[in-house]
Amino acid sequence: MSTIPSGSAVLRTIDDLRGPAGRLEALLNAGSENASYAALVCHPHPLGGGTMHNKVVYHTMKAFQSFGLPVLRFNFRGAGLSEGEHDGHDEQRDVQAALDWLEREFCLPILFAGFSFGAAIGLLTCCGDERVKGLIALGLPVHAEGRDYHYRFLPSCPQPKLFISGSRDQYGPKLQVEEVFHTAKQPAELVWIDDADHFFVGKLDQVQLAIRSWVQTRFLPATS
């Protein structure tokens, strides 16, 4: 493990995160000693170039970090330096491995956020996991690059959920995302970023604001 100064926080490379397909390349942005949650952020589809360094993933990490939470990012199997090969479904087990690592490292309740493919895989994995207290889906995909996404599990997903999508998202058209959202078990909120595409180009400050507002209101009401 190595540490790299990163502004007011410390960025750690994680060497002991392993999934069923082998070692998973990972980074931890350290939090404060009195953090009340740990956070996990998952990246978009590897076949589209998605990694943990994606801009949406990075800005999501910064939103969590602003509350002093430790934030884990990792590359799915076959992405970056992570071992294994892309599967499209078994990445759920990579998410499970990351949750297990956070539990061992911090013994804190966990907040999850995922972007695009990371949102779809992460929601499916985290829904019903008692360690995960809140779920954020950014750019929830419905149909992308020939791949269809289904969310039949959402009516029984008990945790609070926040959906953030762009009004011009080419992979999650507004009407279809709203249909998915209305199947989700309450509590659930949907925030539209006006005039944003799937990647929230030029709108990442609004994404951060939406995440911060939701986290502070629902999970950290005493945070100033």
Account of the protein in words:
With 224 residues, this protein is an alpha/beta fold. 27% of the residues lie in helices and 25% in strands. It is built from 5 helices and 13 strands. The protein has helices spanning 55-65, 91-106, 117-126, 174-181, 204-218, and strands spanning 2-6, 9-14, 18-19, 22-23, 26-29, 38-42, 71-74, 110-115, 132-138, 143-144, 147-148, 161-166, 188-193. Strands 1-2-5-7-6-8-9-12-13 form a 9-stranded mixed β-sheet, sandwiched between helices. The longest helix has 16 residues, at 91-106. The protein starts with a strand and ends in a 6-residue tail after the last helix. The model is unreliable at 2-8 (pLDDT under 50).
Question: CATH topology, which one?
Answer: Rossmann fold
**Main sheet: strand order:** 1-2-5-7-6-8-9-12-13
Q: What is the level 1 CATH name?
A: Alpha Beta
Number of domains: 1
Total of DSSP H or I helical runs spanning 4+ residues = 5
Oligomerization: single chain
Work out the number of β strands.
Answer: 13
Order of helices and strands: EEEEEEHEHEHEEEEHEH
